[in-house]
């Protein structure tokens, strides 16, 4: 099954269109691509490079809690959203340190600046952990995934818990074609640190199995997509567990699938490696609701990946 992802990486290298992008990095891009993973054959955690499952677990549990503040992530040593919060802080009047304009690219090109940037980022994260008021102000990312999934705001001042609703619908009307959760709220897009890349997903029940299809408008194929595959596979397993279903397919539909120019050599290295068998996901069977799961309740067995491959994040 991993070959589906590797085929996408190869296609981008060989056929991707040269395009500019919001970050100024440059990409090879294709539009409209689909991968399918049979979750009954193994948990799709890529083996041609190590993918940190702990980060995937803590991020998904963060979403499911409806949380939008990076403090929970930092408490679980998860730094994948740091730059988005840091960007808001260094753009504010409260920040008085060195100029951090365009820190993502400058850190790659200027070693002295990178040292200064890493120091400021580390201090920022520590302050998020230590200072609750500071965290409330600068750890907040706006109405991103957790908010839209669990607290979609309505005109009358109420909210919709999309995750709870879709679980109830799977239990009571499994043949419904409305088993959908959306993270794309046009009203909230301007105030989000990063508008949702994985914008909506739909469940499908057949023959006692739960399948999920994700539509992802923007897909960072080297860094982001391996996380997205494992995250939504895990979400499908958790909801199947609560609804007493087996797992079916995870279908990953991509809009703008792109490979950043500074990820091309890393992708070539990954393509040179031989895939191994996917691991097995182990869930704590004593937990009934998806909202009851904690980090220790979710594990993988038999994960034997190749070494990690580092690449810079485009912010």
Automatic annotation (TrEMBL):
Q: What is its main location?
A: cytoplasm
Q: Which reaction does it catalyse?
A: dUMP + (6R)-5,10-methylene-5,6,7,8-tetrahydrofolate = 7,8-dihydrofolate + dTMP
Instruction: Describe which pathway this protein belongs to, using the record's wording.
Output: Pyrimidine metabolism; dTTP biosynthesis
Keywords linked to the UniProt accession = Cytoplasm, Methyltransferase, Nucleotide biosynthesis, Transferase
Which residues make up the binding site for dUMP?
Answer: 22, 177-178, 217-220, 228, 258-260
Residues binding (6R)-5,10-methylene-5,6,7,8-tetrahydrofolate are: 220, 314
Output the InterPro entries linked to this UniProt entry: Thymidate_synth/dCMP_Mease, Thymidate_synth/dCMP_Mease_dom, Thymidylate_synthase, Thymidylate_synthase_AS
Does the entry feature the keyword Cytoplasm, yes or no?
A: yes
Subcellular location per UniProt equals:
Cytoplasm
**Which residues does the UniProt record annotate as the domain Thymidylate synthase/dCMP hydroxymethylase?**
3-315
Question: What's one GO MF term for it?
Answer: thymidylate synthase activity
Output one GO BP term. methylation
- What does the record give as the active site? 197
Q: What does this protein do?
A: Catalyzes the reductive methylation of 2'-deoxyuridine-5'-monophosphate (dUMP) to 2'-deoxythymidine-5'-monophosphate (dTMP) while utilizing 5,10-methylenetetrahydrofolate (mTHF) as the methyl donor and reductant in the reaction, yielding dihydrofolate (DHF) as a by-product. This enzymatic reaction provides an intracellular de novo source of dTMP, an essential precursor for DNA biosynthesis.
Entry's family note = Belongs to the thymidylate synthase family. Bacterial-type ThyA subfamily.
Q: What is this protein called?
A: Thymidylate synthase
What's the source species for this entry? Enterococcus alishanensis
Q: Gene encoding it?
A: thyA
């Amino acid at each position: 099954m991993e070959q589906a992802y590797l085929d996408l990486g190869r296609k981008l290298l060989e056929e991707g269109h040269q395009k500019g992008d919001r970050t100024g990095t440059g990409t090879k891009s294709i539009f409209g691509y689909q991968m399918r993973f049979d979750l009954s054959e193994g948990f799709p955690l890529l083996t041609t490079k190590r993918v940190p499952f702990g980060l995937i677990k803590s991020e998904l549990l963060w979403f499911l809690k409806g949380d939008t503040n990076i403090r929970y992530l930092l408490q679980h040593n998860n730094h994948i959203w740091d730059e988005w919060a840091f960007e808001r802080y260094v753009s504010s009047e409260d920040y008085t340190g060195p100029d951090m304009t365009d820190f993502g690219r400058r850190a790659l090109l200027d070693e002295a600046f990178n040292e200064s940037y890493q120091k400021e980022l580390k201090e920022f994260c520590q302050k998020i952990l230590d200072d609750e008021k500071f965290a409330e102000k600068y750890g907040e990312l706006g109405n991103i995934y957790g908010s839209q999934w669990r607290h979609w705001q309505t005109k009358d001042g109420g909210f919709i818990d999309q995750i709870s609703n879709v679980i109830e619908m799977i239990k009571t009307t499994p043949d419904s074609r409305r088993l959908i959760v959306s993270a794309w709220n046009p009203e909230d897009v301007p105030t989000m640190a990063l508008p949702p890349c994985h914008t909506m997903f739909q469940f499908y029940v057949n023959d006692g199995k739960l399948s999920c299809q994700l539509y992802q408008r923007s897909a960072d194929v080297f860094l982001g997509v391996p996380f997205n595959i494992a995250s939504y596979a895990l979400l499908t397993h958790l909801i199947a567990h609560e609804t007493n279903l087996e797992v079916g397919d995870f279908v990953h539909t991509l809009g703008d699938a792109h490979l950043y120019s500074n990820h091309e050599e890393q992708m070539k290295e990954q393509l040179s490696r031989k895939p191994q068998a996917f691991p097995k996901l182990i869930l704590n069977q004593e937990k009934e609701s998806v909202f009851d799961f904690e980090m220790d309740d979710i594990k993988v067995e038999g994960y034997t990946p190749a070494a990690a491959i580092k690449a810079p994040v485009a912010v």
